[in-house]
Amino acid sequence: MKNNIYSLVNPGTFVIKGTNIKDDTDNVIVHPRYLSICHADQRYFQGVRPPEVLARKLPMALLHEGIGQVVSDAKGEFHEGEWVVMVPNTPVEQDDIIAENYLRSSKFRASGFDGFMQDNIEMGRDRIVRLPETVDKEVAAFTEIASVSYHTINRFDNIAHKRRNRVGIWGDGNLAFLTSLIFKTRYPDIELCIFGIDKDKMADLTFADKVIDCAKIPDDLRVDHAFECVGGRASGIVINQIIDYINPEGTIAIMGVSEEPVPINTRMVLEKGLRIFGSSRSGAADFKDLIRLYENNPEMVKLMKKIIGETVEVHTVDDMIKAFEADKKMQGGKTVIIWNV
After folding, report:
1. Any idea what DSSP says for residue 87?
2. In this predicted model, what pLDDT tens digit does every residue of 185-227 receive, in sequence order?
3. Residues 6+ apart with CB under 8 A from 1
4. Spatial contact of 272 and 246, defined as CB atoms under 8 Å apart
5. Is residue 223 within 8 Å of residue 246, measured between CB atoms?
6. Which end of the chain is more exposed for a tag (fewer CB within 10 A), N or C?
7. Left, alpha or beta for 146 (phi > 0: left; psi -120 to 50: alpha)?
8. Quick one: angle between helices 39-46 and 317-329, nearest 10?
9. What domains, with CATH codes, occur in the chain?
């Protein structure tokens, strides 16, 4: 089967590369249909990663968030036209202790090997998850980032002590919104406080018990545990603010990505006996569990639709560039691509 891969060769420049998918493959061939742009994709497109990273990674097809329809499956486990969510993490080994998304040997699409910007994709059958017809396709397009939230909440549940009267989530961007919404859906009886700075974004957090301006936190407010969903240059400030307002022996989940080392107040980490853990990416099991959560909580899916900022139909390479440019201009929200290449 002839196939085209749309590779980023230089920041802002895509080139079409022709390839072939073997007709006798045991994998499942999937045609991408709805994709979503992640901040990591945008950093490659803009060329804001370090030069040595760009030189090592490019050329490469971008995008690791998306759903598609099955083109063919030689084994017949998936039927033609069936909707599936594509899992970008691709492990090459199993470990009894370390999850697939933390194995250093695992590969991840659009970070070291080609992502979903292709006509068709050869996917391992354990790397696709059936998507119920009832689930909104545009929301399903960014299941990957939502699965990261789901994965982190699972780890929180295993690590944090059982006093969970009040939990705080710091951030008002896409990751904070999804983490907060999934957390409140899974644990409706825990008081959830969201801390942010953007009043417009925070107005959408209607499901939270409290929404608090980071500059106006009451002196006597405390949380039992917290999630950091900010990243970047502000992550150090946020982590230290969490350390100030968390109760002793609380757990802090760090989810925001920072390109630079972040200083934190280790003295108070020690004095309070805090646990700090990091989470990144997710595995196929997280996708499966999250899709079940979609099915059982349609109201949650409706709320997730609030963070769709742009929907761009793509037919050509010029359209791809327009989609990334539109995403770059947005103040927040997810850009969903309807992939009609």
Report:
1. P
2. 999 999 999 999 999 999 989 999 999 999 999 999 999 999 9
3. 20, 21, 22, 23, 29, 120
4. yes
5. yes
6. N
7. alpha
8. 110
9. 2-143+308-339 (3.90.180.10), 147-278 (3.40.50.720)
User: How does pLDDT run across 279-320, given as a tens digit for each residue?
Assistant: 999 999 999 999 999 999 999 999 999 999 999 999 999 999
| Tokens describing residue 39 | 């901040």
Which amino acid is present at 165?
Answer: N
Helix (H) or strand (E) run with residue 86 in it: strand 83-86
Closest CA to 40 of 196, 231, 168: 231
Report residue 178 as tokens.
């999804």
Scanning the structure block, which residue is given the tokens 């793509």? 314
Measure the CA angle with vertex 148, ends 146 and 152; round to 5°: 120
Residues in the chain: 341
pTM: 0.96
Reply yes or no: is the peptide bond before residue 218 cis, omega within 30 of 0.
no
242 within 8 A of 268, measured Cβ to Cβ: no
